[in-house]
Every structure is written in C-alpha cells, then in structure tokens.
Amino acid sequence: MHYLTIARDGHAEIEEKRSRFLCTLVGVENEEDARAVVERLRKQHWDARHTCSAFRIGPPPQPVERSNDDGEPAGTAGAPMLEVLRGAGVSDTVAVVTRWFGGTLLGAGGLVRAYSDAVRAALDEVGTLRRELVREYAIEVPYDAAGRLETDLRSSGVTVLDTAYGAAVTLRIGAPPAEEKRLQTLVAELTAGGSVLVPGVDHWVDR
User: Fold this and answer.
1) If DSSP codes are grouped into helix, strand and coil, which group holds residue 163?
2) What is the CATH number of the domain that holds 173?
3) Contact 22, 98 (CB under 8 A)
4) What whole-number distance in Å separates Cα of residue 91 and Cα of residue 111?
5) pLDDT in tens, 139-149
6) 41 is in which domain, residue-wise?
7) Quick one: which of 99, 142, 165, 171 has the most CB atoms within 10 Å?
8) Which helix (H) or strand (E) holds 148?
9) CATH code assigned at 115
10) Tens digit of each residue's pLDDT (9 = 90 or more) over 72-127
11) In what residue span(s) does the Impact N-terminal domain sit (predicted)?
C-alpha cells in the first residue's frame, strides 16, 4: 500500500484582479495538527480577509478529509482546494490559502479558479514523494552464512535494514506486506531451509 504526500513544507502565491492568494502546504499527521496550522497562519496573517483550508490525512481508501471556506461563498474555496489535493493523490497534508482582498469581486467561478490555482502552484513548488507501508522482518543465520545471505538478498532486490550480532547473526529486512510469501520462499531457498522469516512491525516509509 502506498500514497503520495508533500516532499516538504512550502508555499506559493498567485494574484487575481489585485487579490493575493497565498497557499501554504504543511505535512501533518492528524486533525489536531492540521487545525493548529490553520490557526497559526490565521494569527500570522491577521490582516487577511480570509484564511481558507483543506486537509487530507491517512492512507487510502478512506483518508480523513475536511475543508473550510472561512466566509467565502459556500463551495468556492475549501472544497475546490480539497479537490486539488484529492486529484493529486496527496494526503497527510494541510493546505491553507490566505486571501488579501484586492477590491474587485471575482464571482463564484473566479474564486474557485483562484483557490484551486493557488494550491496547484504550491504543489508544483514543494513536489511530492511516495509514502509506502513497509513490514520489518528478522532472519537469524549462522555467522558463516550471514555475509552470503545478505549479498544474495540485496541482489534479489530486498532492502537490508541492519545486521545484529549475537549468538547468531540477525538480518533485519524491510518489504511491503504483500511480498511476505515471496520473501518466505526466497529465504527458504537461499538458506536451504535453515532459516525462517519472522514478521515484525509495519510502518510508513518515505521514498
């Protein structure tokens, strides 16, 4: 399982009929963090007319999604911003667009375009990376077989995370959970049935 998130925090600004739209993107892990970012930016840009927001948190197929128009006509700010994040497949991210009014009304269509374009510009600025679910596994082998096994695993495309030395050598590897059966077969073949693959914890890794 995998999804995209932003490669770094950042921002971009666009202008539409003298109104300024500053989009700030921040990586977050939960709703509380996302709402804290919105409030921080609201206070930081106290002179702005609107502080609209949208965020997606968590992996597919059902990430948590929220949006807020902050006084703009309903559906013209937060929802379009959320749609841009959704369309880009980006999660664990809050988008905040700060608007300074330029004196000219943009109309519903103009607002939708401006808020959407601000988020797109910020996404282009920060880039994305792949967040992948990885399961750790342990393999215990005798000292005289450890070096060869590690080499064979790496040549088979397996990520070796680290090696621990005790009464025997324990190799710790990482792979998507869906590859567990293949790894079990591979380890059995490489060790002539002398070692087994012991599953550990799952965690998300950015690549």
Assistant:
1) strand
2) 3.30.70.240
3) yes
4) 23
5) 999 999 899 99
6) 2-126
7) 99
8) helix 143-155
9) 3.30.230.30
10) 999 999 999 999 999 999 999 999 999 999 988 999 999 999 999 999 999 999 99
11) 17-123
